[in-house]
Amino acid sequence: MTMFALVDCNNFYCSCERLFRPDLKRVPVVVLSNNDGCIVARSQEAKDLGIKMGTPLFKARNEIKRYGIRVFSSNYTLYGDISSRVMQTLEQFSPRMEIYSIDEAFLDLSGTGSWPDYGQQIRSTVKRHVGVPVSVGIAPTKTLAKLANYAAKKFRATRGVVDLSDPRRQQRLLALTPVSEIWGIGRNLTRTLERRGMRTALDLAQINPRQAKRLSSVVLERTVRELNGESCIELDEVAAPKQQIVCSRSFGEKLTDYSKVREAICEFTARAAEKLRREKLAARMVNVFIRTSPFDNAGPKYSNSATGTLPQSSSDTLEILALATRLFDMIWKEGCRYAKTGIMLGDFCSPDRIQLDLFDMGPGRKRSDNLMRVIDTINQGGQGKVWFGGQRPQKNWFMRQENLSPAYTTKWNCIPVVK
DNA sequence: TCTGGGGTCCTAGGACCC
DNA sequence: TCTGGGGTCCTAGGACCC
Cellular component terms, GO, for this chain's entry (predicted)? Predict the structure, then answer.
């Protein structure tokens, strides 16, 4: 019998921040999005205080002060490293595993017995080896495993593990769960379904799959089938090759200056090209966008983007930069207070299959590859020592990160010392 | 004053082909 | 004069996820 487990770290970013700060145990903690904009992770204590996911920091200032909530800027270097440790630990529990996001993974538990015990074993092992708490949901479809995990987190009596292999238990939980909590049902679908009188997951599970398709799309049809125990979404063991790479960011302050916004675009282009080379890909499509903030009433609203095609697929920062800056000039408008800019790369192929330009048969290409390799090696040292014309080394306006924790596990000088 | 970033998938509609 | 049907590819936009 096919059985999936969804293992999901509890309040992952907060748990990471606490790993090296035992003094923060039982203290409410929140972690902010890039640029210290919104609250994107909350410890249980912070949730209990009514802090909502996605709240802009400035709207929670009062509560933070009143309850002494500890605030952290996001530290993706730390979270990424802890994540890979969790995943390594999970690998030993199943021959087939899909890393679904930074803090969760599906395991194939078919053929294993006594699922609740096995779930508890997973929990205690991750806690012992890495130190972060996880919850485990077990069920015959991925959608039900997600639901089981939701219950494992929500109901304390489950001790962090819910086994939904029994259809009667599935029904009971479905009846208790609001339709909005189902994997794949977002804000819009919730509205559509509620308008038709479906409020619980059970209400949705009971409609005809074909009707679900008519109501929305095959995605909803699959969800209905999965809720009824029919597995439609397979385990993806190998990550699909990327189809696009995006680098974008809001600024720490509004920018009106052409040269500063252009610097930002150059910076993002260099980063995106690095990612591209790390994935061993080459891109042909480049898209650049700029926009003002929808919340900013102090100036005109403006949002625009431009797309261009490279003469041939490339992962060379200089070639991409040349196109990106040209696209940027096409959409630049004077007199706006810009809040955000970014670049998208797409239309990928692997570099060994690049269609060569008639006039670029080899040596030039090779030189560019070598140059990029050298630059990547130098920059991986950590501080970004080589940059291109247009990028700028010190950018104090760039991103707000006022409460950043140390890179405890990835930088020698940040490793905690036991006295 | 202060509102994230990086992705995927699906559908509809237009252009084009035979 | 009569003016089909099926297929592919591309793009934009919407919805969702973490």
Answer: cytosol
